[in-house]
Description:
Layout: E1 6-12, E2 18-19, E3 35-41, H1 59-64, E4 70-71, H2 76-82, E5 86-87, E6 91-96, H3 102-108, E7 116-120, H4 125-134, E8 142-145, H5 150-160, E9 164-168, H6 185-202, E10 205-211, H7 222-227, E11 230-235, E12 242-250, E13 258-264, E14 267-270, H8 274-281, E15 289-296, E16 299-311, E17 319-322, H9 326-340, E18 347-353, H10 365-377, E19 385-387, E20 390-391, E21 397-398, H11 403-412, E22 417-421, H12 427-430, E23 435-439, H13 442-449
Parallel strand pairs: 6-10, 6-11, 7-8, 7-9, 9-10, 17-18, 19-22, 22-23
Antiparallel strand pairs: 1-2, 1-3, 4-5, 11-12, 12-13, 13-14, 15-16, 16-18, 20-21
Bound molecules: adenosine-5'-triphosphate (ATP) and magnesium ion.
Amino acid sequence: MAKIKSKIHYLCSDCGDEFPKWHGQCPSCKEWGTLSEFKVTGKRSSLRSKALIQNSRSLTEVLAGNPGERFNTGMSEVDRVLGGGLLSGSLILLGGNPGVGKSTLALQLGNGDLKILYVTAEESEDQVAIRAKRLGIQSDQLHLSGENEIHAIESHISTVNPQLVVVDSIQTIYNEELDSIAGSISQIRECGQQLLSISKQKNVAILIIGHVTKEGTIAGPKMLEHMVDTVLYLEGDDRHDHRILRSVKNRFGPTHEVGIFQMEPDGLSEVSNPSELFLAERSENIPGTSIFPSLEGTRPILVEVQALVSNANYGTPQRNVNGFDYKRLSMLLAVLEKRMKTPMGSKDVFVNLVGGLRVDDPAADLSILCSVASSSRDQSIPDGMIIIGEVGLAGEIRSVGQIDKRLQEASALGFTHAIIPNGNYNEKTKKIKITLHPAKTVQNVFGIIF
Ligand SMILES: Nc1ncnc2c1ncn2[C@@H]1O[C@H](COP(=O)(O)OP(=O)(O)OP(=O)(O)O)[C@@H](O)[C@H]1O
Ligand SMILES: [Mg+2]
């Protein structure tokens, strides 16, 4: 028998392209230092035998097979984020920080009517069963498998014939035909590609769980995100119980939907009215607070801005700010004093962005200025309103970037009114389901709010 030769190839960790020789700069995506070595065995090319090659079909034939069947997962927030349910034959990637609740969310899908094969390559079947018991899942439709080799997983899928396969996680499964260890770029790429072909051939939805890097992106080649149909992120932090499920890519639905959950001892419970959750932590009708839709990378996050203005009884007035630039606050106070004739020289000013978030975005200016003015005047800002805009030295409101994303997020979270820069008032923003109040100057804004 001919010995299978293995040869060295180089794989780009960014775009996932493969090259026969090493380059300092990836010839495809032009990133530097992203190529790493991996061994290719001769078997790979023989994976697809002639017998597997499919004939092309006419559109009518394809449509006759009733493609695009959607299933309800039993969690309406998840269905909404997916664009109206789980689409058969789709490949979904779910990322999130360690311990945020990825496995919990995936397992809770077992509460619905779906037939699920849960491939638990990361934990033992027993550990998953213990979690399922805690989450109150009792279903004959949920099958667990501790397998972590891709071909074995494929044969399990054929045997169980599920509607959804959960792979927890992509970093722990491997293809025995490759020499590299599970979690390496070449393994993630290969297994990702095989899961893609399984999902399309067997018309089964596959949910792949992925770890995230320090920078917050899903670990592994960027190509994985290109390959899948939908990319979801589950976000949250240790101090709060709420979790946000967000889609950053969706071939079969909108990308700006968010699903809000609360982490409880018996799992993630859906929050049907998200604004209530945020307003619950917020002191309603208290002067000095406003809501600003911040943008973290590509992700919009709503931040509560709190300000307290009081008489400075002890010498030099204090200025204390958490989460925003101190000098920028001084500038905003000067604008307030000069343009709006609000004396600030003898006042202590405290500003806090709730939740420990740091915002460098000048789009937060107007929200901070309004919070300070609201506290100083002892007049609250209307509920359900978000405020956004950069403030110039003349008191003019300048337009901000990516306003539609921020407005969509606010609208999805239940906010109904938005003060925006006049320059951002256009056909695109008018279409978003939120009442817009365009403003040219700080005077205009105060006229609307107070
Ligand atoms: N008994 C419990 N009561 C309340 N919450 C719990 C309990 N056990 C676990 N949790 C919550 O579930 C979270 C862990 O969820 P899960 O294992 O689904 O996260 P994960 O994102 O899959 O993590 P990993 O990246 O480690 O796989 C914990 O951080 C905690 O918030
Ligand atoms: Mg997990």
